[in-house]
Please model this.
Amino acid sequence: MKSEIDQKLSYDEKDPTDIERWGKRLEHHGLAGTKGIKPIPMKLLAGPIGAGNRGGFGRALEKYYYGIDPGNDIGPDFPLAGVELKSTPLVNGRDGHRCKERLVLGIIDYGGEPGVVFEKSHVMKKCGLLMLVSYLHSKDTAVGELKIVQAKLVDLKKDIGVQAFRQIKRDWAIIMQKIRQGKAHELSGGDTLFLEACTKASDATKRKTYAGNLEAKPRAFAFKPKFVLSHLIGEIPIDSERIVEGTDAPTENALDEKVGDRFGAFIAKTVTEIAQAVAPDIDPTHPRKDVLSVIARAILGTRKKRILEFEEADILMKTIRVDRHGMPKEHMSFPKFDHMRIVNERWEDTDDPPTIRQAIEKRFLFVIFQYKDDEETLVLRDAFFWKMPFADREKMHELFDKTRHMIRTGHADALPGEKDNSVGHVRPHARDGKDKEKTPKNGMQVKKCFWLNKQYLKQQIDRAGK
Model:
């Protein structure tokens, strides 16, 4: 790739620090008000960011502000400096910024890199030095008016911390091992902590893995959103803290060991005994819905709402109450879906908020509290990390497809129930019977979501306890 920058260079394309300097001119401004190497066409500059123009900001930044046109080159965007240019959208949340999406680094070659170490991998060759430009996403706002929050050069080896870099190496090795085992089709975000194999080009032709004649959808290496926010951008979520002391980010083994040790010390203890030990100001019998979650976080050593290690790795902690026979008291819910929107979604799609596929590909921490024979006394039975097996994710795929079809064909009032699928079902998830939304053919219907069946959860809990 040869740069299209004219002879009057405004930055040195061989110097990473000068590439960063040029980017920092954008901070707290927009592309429309900051002169770049080339004039940005008005059609691109004034076009609103949205579903039909998702890459508009990136194209304007790359081709016109920096004046480069690397295309799909396998090397970094600035080959003479070894720098890859990336942009990432942020959105304003209740507790500060959050990344709207994963930071995609590059497509995974299922047939390449056998025997290569991470430091010599395509990921590091292309993205070892990142020029990361983060901007504030605002739906329907013109590309040129999007506010740039930060422009920062990130050296993955030096800037994210020793432990975080070590875990990225481990994540990469896990992904590559799964591919070598002929399981590329089973990859999910729950396999790894920071670097994941995310879906890419859902409508593209399937690729063959090199471990035989197996097929898998295209995937790309990507950093998880909250890892990008804390380690690349440098923003720590409000009301959060680490539970593994003395590290920039613990490895998976260290996190698993910490969680196992802390919960292990309270197995078979009543919630009253646990609360007295870790949170004496909390009444475990209080009807508030999150009381068990507060106690679980206190067991892990924090009273904050967010555990930073879980945030960065996209781990979701769920407290589950089971009766004396081990049957969960409730099905497990996921966020509500939109009846009008889901009919146009595909299983492989990614979105913000996450789709059901993204939700079930997470890694979970299940904290199990069980009622004793009196059905009043609650004790800590178990705590374990869990990710949904591939075969069960396929069952949820079937449920998703059936749900879409039924809504599209006018059966939104009779969606699949618990008996229709061994893993999950659809049921209301609304404030009350009046909390409704529009559907394509069935008028206004109560809001709904996907749920995991109680019987399925019991099977997973029993299996973990063996």
In short: Residues 329-367+386-466 form one domain. Confidence is low (pLDDT under 50) at residues 1-8. Residues 162-180 form the longest helix (19 residues).
